[in-house]
């Protein structure tokens, strides 16, 4: 029985542990039994590796141990450092380079406007013809594609649109200007502790990045290219399937045409289908429609209805609904209960994938989002950072086999935890709670795909005891807990397994 398949509870695990002690004949035997029990309880702990996998595990373990020893010697452990300062160290890591080649299965928690390297937006999209920009009083750069200069906005937003092509011709240092655009699009900074003094500051900048790029990504030709480029970046990182949280922004053409949500869903579907034809092993994508949790309940009622309509029209593409945005300042799920119970009252199944527990604040209405996500039968829980503080919720969620989508780098950059070795998911990983690893908004954090987050989970959250079994189980979990149908999951697992076997052979034989 695999760890991810356990619907057991902590009480049962405790019973297993206690039975080990009863059988123990000596102190050493008791110690060994306890170590064995803990090893079996961990994520992946009950997997039995084949001979080639054991060889691969030994090689990976040796590299991991060497990196851990070096980190102790130098005092520079990447998971203990802010990602912006650790990134260059991670990229030099032999373990990281193995993880990049590892077939990781699926990315189940990523947002639509942060799946493509922001450098591509700067170097490619802002160099396209008819791209205008303006600067808001708050210093945010906005963009719009138009045949003629767009009308001036009111002065509280931005008063004048400038053609980028013409503007760049008058610059002496185009590189510096492009770098300034990049700084508008990401949270990256050399001194994050100085730049982001608290969560309010980092969240304000985080949300402004999506505002800045919306005029670029929501232009129809870019929208199509953006989706394809995003799939390419994840595919190159050995991710075979994605479930995207999408806002479905109004997409515009330069002739004034504006497309609605149905057009966007069809475009996602078309681009993914064409991408799959050209990329062997790529499984596809599904969409989780989202809206902001700072909106009034009457607007969320409309969004829930729209999600129901989209799912009815695109049952193979639209997986369900979620609320996004900062939990600590947004409305709690309970506030939206009238809206979120609409599907059930109408006899309609609308799966939920709630962000819940992405907070440090215990005992607040926000903290209780975990409880309400459980009551509302959320299919998965996004982040679930506070879950270990809620034993009753954890127990019930485990009974229901509700996985947690763990996004290590996001949690660190948005200042929930500074040292990823102390991430609360370490507890979940140790007891074998079903989790998946994802990357949330990788482009905004200066990352790509899933490998950086897998590194942080493997080297930091998992500690020294995480091994190839852990990685294998996490990859398998990502397929098991996806919204693919059972037949689709079977095919996806077969595709992943073929790639896994090739990866293991290369690693075991030393060609990594």
Can you lay out the helices and strands and say which pair or pack?
Layout: H1 10-23, H2 27-41, H3 51-74, H4 83-91, H5 94-101, E1 105-111, H6 118-123, E2 131-135, E3 141-145, E4 162-163, H7 164-169, H8 174-185, H9 192-195, H10 199-217, H11 220-236, E5 239-246, E6 251-252, E7 258-259, H12 261-278, E8 284-292, H13 297-313, E9 318-324, H14 337-340, H15 342-345, E10 355-356, H16 369-375, E11 381-383, H17 391-399, E12 404-406, H18 408-413, H19 425-431, E13 435-437, H20 451-461, H21 468-480, H22 486-508
Parallel strand pairs: 1-5, 5-8, 8-9, 10-11, 11-12, 12-13
Antiparallel strand pairs: 2-3, 2-4, 6-7
Helix pairs in contact: 1-2, 3-22, 5-20, 11-12
Sum this structure up briefly.
With 512 residues, the chain is α/β, with parallel strands linked by helices. It has 22 helices and 13 strands.
Helix content: 40-55%
Assign the structural class, choosing from mainly alpha, mainly beta, alpha/beta, alpha+beta, or little secondary structure. Answer: alpha/beta
Mean pLDDT: 93
Count of DSSP H/I helices: 22
Question: Which regions contain 5 or more consecutive residues with pLDDT less than 50?
Answer: 1-8
CA-to-CA gap between the ends? 30 Å
Query: Which outline best applies?
Result: globular
The CATH architecture of the largest domain comes to: Alpha-Beta Barrel
Number of strands: 13
CATH superfamily grouping of the largest domain: Metal-dependent hydrolases
CATH class of the largest domain: Alpha Beta
Instruction: State the major sheet.
Output: 4 strands, parallel
In terms of DSSP E residues, the strand content is 5-15%
> Strands of the biggest beta sheet: in what spatial order?
1-5-8-9
Number of domains: 2
